[in-house]
Amino acid sequence: MVPKPNGRPPERVLIVDDDPIVRSALRLALSGRSIIIVGEAQHGAQALQMLESGVATDVILMDIWTPTISGIAAAGPIGSRFPHLRIILMTNFLSNDLLPHIATAGVHGCLLKSAGIDEMIAAIHGAESAVTAAEPPVELSVRERQIIALIGLGSSNRRIAETLELTVSTVKTYIARLYTKLGVHNRVQLVRAARETNRVGAGEFTPSSDGRFESAQAAYEG
Question: For the residues of 17-53, what is the DSSP string, one character each?
């Protein structure tokens, strides 16, 4: 058994995916990398049953789209029943439309299935720190809060640039700085950290009725 780099015990991981080939591949790739696979489930409902039956885990690695109940929908009940667990969602394609749903699902991260194994392992080991990384007080500028609010609404970099009258390059620079500032690694974690530390209010993630993002922008005008 390989200990974690910081000397703590290996992370226990429950894999949730309806494809047995994916589950087997993940088990093979992750086992022995300071990670112990404690079980496999086909969907979130089955994972919840396993947890309630006594299966102990630290991290749930769960596909977004599973039969019976989606990973996004399952994250809520699992998080409510087992708040100490960290949930990382997996998907083949992360669209901007999905981001607001993921950001409000109470998960600790989202990975593309095409991600390298090292990135996946880092996400598993970093899931705990991602929850607490934003705790120290950090001041955000008005522009940074605008960008986080728009990301939370599912805006692409280009859409953010158009809304705030910036270049796409400038938006990317802001986002990279925000990752460093809040100690996060992706857009889902960024929005989650901002919400949990009250740096951006939950209401700022609601688009206006015409589908535009003017409400988020107007909240910071003046």
Answer: -S-HHHHHHHHHHHTTSSEEEEEEESSHHHHHHHHHT
